[in-house]
Amino acid sequence: MARPLMALEIERDRGLFRYNGSKNIENSYLLNLTNKATEMRYAFIHVSGTRDINMSGLDEVKLRAGEKREIPIILEMDPASLRGEVTNITFEVSTSEEPEKRVAAPTTFLGPVFR
């Protein structure tokens, strides 16, 4: 079995959620991407788990062979779209060279407690 050519780790930035100027809820993340290939790769970043989420930040990154980079990402949701205080989401990264081979990392999107 071939090893993945891209590694992905997720860190939540600043812990909890916040409201932005549009009164939507934001969560910040740092995606640590590593190109394990011996050639340059174009990585494409996608988030899944709910269709009501918007992503701000780079969604395409060029990485040299062996390069590791931190990519800041902000996810935003309308509070009316939340179904609870925690929404399970997954960041996925694919490359233009091998789009069928995705690397995925599950995490959560946090919102306010609804009572």
Oligomer: single chain
Strand content: over 45%
Could you tell me how far the N terminus lies from the C terminus, measured between alpha carbons in angstroms? 48 Å
Q: Overall mean pLDDT score?
A: 90
State the shape: elongated
Query: Low-confidence spans: pLDDT under 50, at least 5 residues?
Result: none
Number of helices: 0
Class based on secondary structure composition and strand pairing = mainly beta
What would you note in describing this structure?
The protein has 115 residues and is mostly beta strands. It has strands at 6-19, 25-35, 41-48, 54-57, 60-63, 68-77, 86-95, 103-110. The strands form two sheets. It has a four-stranded antiparallel sheet with strand order 1-2-6-4, with no helix packed on it. A four-stranded antiparallel sheet has the order 5-3-7-8, with no helix packed on it. Strand 7 (86-95) and strand 8 (103-110) form a beta hairpin. The N and C termini lie far apart (48 Å). The model has no long low-confidence stretch (mean pLDDT 90).
Short descriptors:
115 residues, mainly beta, four-stranded antiparallel beta sheet, 0% helix, 60% strand
What's the short version?
This protein is 0% helix and 60% strand. The protein is mainly beta and 115 residues long.
Compile the SSE list and pairings.
Elements lengths: L5 E14 L5 E11 L5 E8 L5 E4 L2 E4 L4 E10 L8 E10 L7 E8 L5
Antiparallel strand pairs: 1-2, 2-6, 3-5, 3-7, 4-6, 7-8
